[in-house]
Amino acid sequence: MPRDFDVDVAVVGAGPAGSSCALHLARAGHLVALIDRRDFPRRKICGEYLNCGAVRELQALPGTADLEAQALPLYGMELHAHGETAEFAFSKPAWSLPRIVLDDRLRTLAATGGASETTASVYAVEDDGTGVTLALRGASGDARLRARIVVGADGLHSTIARLTAAARSTNCSRFAIGGHCPGRTRRNWIEMYAAAEGYMALNPVDEERANAMFVVSKERLRRNRGDVAAELARFSHSVSGGLRSFAPEPLRDESLAVGPLAYRVRTAVRGRVILTGDAAGFVDPFTGQGVYLALRAGRLAAQSVDEVLQDFGRAARAFHEYERRLRAEVAERERLALFVRVMLVHSALSRRAARALRARPDDFRPLVDAVTAAAGAPVERLIAAALWALR
């Protein structure tokens, strides 16, 4: 088998997880190829809310100091569910930042840091135990690239996970649809509307637009395939109790449709291929933790790969530690998201939670800080404290 390498690391996927991972590795002196099937700058609607943890991760990266000036600060969230309303302020400001700005900045930083860029899709992965060969298909034809290690950061329903048999099937009938709509929220706060049938989030983007995200069932989308915008207008009116209702064709710019909103992997490490970001495990977008997890996972992956490249004798231990830390982080975020979602979609519990939050907001502060990644604590203790506050 050939042992010559084109690069030390091939990172597939130039979103926040992949670009941040490539940036860390390039700055550590490794030869890195950053591969994405799309040209940049690209427009992407999801993930334009950056919670406190995501802001902290970004601020730790070199070359991101001016992003705050391009972001709209977010100071809290309004929750509307089953006729009740509650609100909470964030301990630290979050950001609303268009992904076309964020993704292009991270990709540019990785490139200026030393990573080479390739626009191509991956259609085959061969790990022979000494390195990994990727079969690429781009505008100029097919090519092959050989790397010591491959990082799959190509998102939900990852191609790299599928090609390496790391992905496993899941059952879910929920889909996300979103885009920019005219108008904005009443203040620099997120508005969240939840019901048993699904939920809707409004995130201000600037003075003229809001990011509207709908999570609905496949069955609802099937009711009116010919006019999805009209169906979303009906859904928004229903889920918000009449507080919000979008006219047909409410979405501007490039809209998003993704699903099903379920994805699991058997392992985040398969030989010399490791997965990171959404490719390594997807957390329900209900609590808006996606970009934080992507940046955090990208950093963890880079630390692990850097250790292995310095001494392949430490590969087993380093990759095992990466998977352990990643799974712990994802599991914690999943438990938080599930707990909040259960509280909001069940009418009796939701109304009780809203009343308790209005009466004793400080009792819920640790839970809010954990969800926004402003601070952390053992999840079980946070959930127990929140349940005690609902007494």
Mean pLDDT: 86
User: What is the total tally of β strands?
Assistant: 18
Query: Which class best fits the helix and strand makeup?
Result: alpha/beta
Distance between the termini: 65 Å
CATH superfamily of the largest domain: FAD/NAD(P)-binding domain
Query: How many domain units?
Result: 3
Query: Rough shape?
Result: globular
The low-confidence parts are none
Characteristic key phrases:
391 residues, alpha/beta, FAD/NAD(P)-binding domain, D-Amino Acid Oxidase, Chain A, domain 2, 37% helix
What does it look like?
The strands form three sheets. Strands 1, 2, 6, 7, 8, 9, 17 and 18 form an eight-stranded mixed beta sheet that branches. The termini are far apart. This protein has three domains: 7-74 and 94-170 and 263-330, 3-Layer(bba) Sandwich (FAD/NAD(P)-binding domain); 174-258, D-Amino Acid Oxidase, Chain A, domain 2, CATH 3.30.9.100; 337-389, no CATH class. The chain has twelve helices and 18 strands. The radius of gyration is 21 Å and the shape is globular. It has helices at 16-27, 52-59, 67-70, 99-112, 159-163, 218-223, 228-239, 290-310, 315-345, 347-359, 365-371, 379-389, and strands at 7-12, 32-36, 49-50, 72-81, 84-96, 116-119, 121-127, 132-138, 141-152, 167-168, 174-182, 189-195, 198-204, 209-217, 252-258, 264-265, 269-270, 273-275. Helices cover 37% and strands 29% of the residues. By secondary structure, it is α/β, with parallel strands linked by helices.
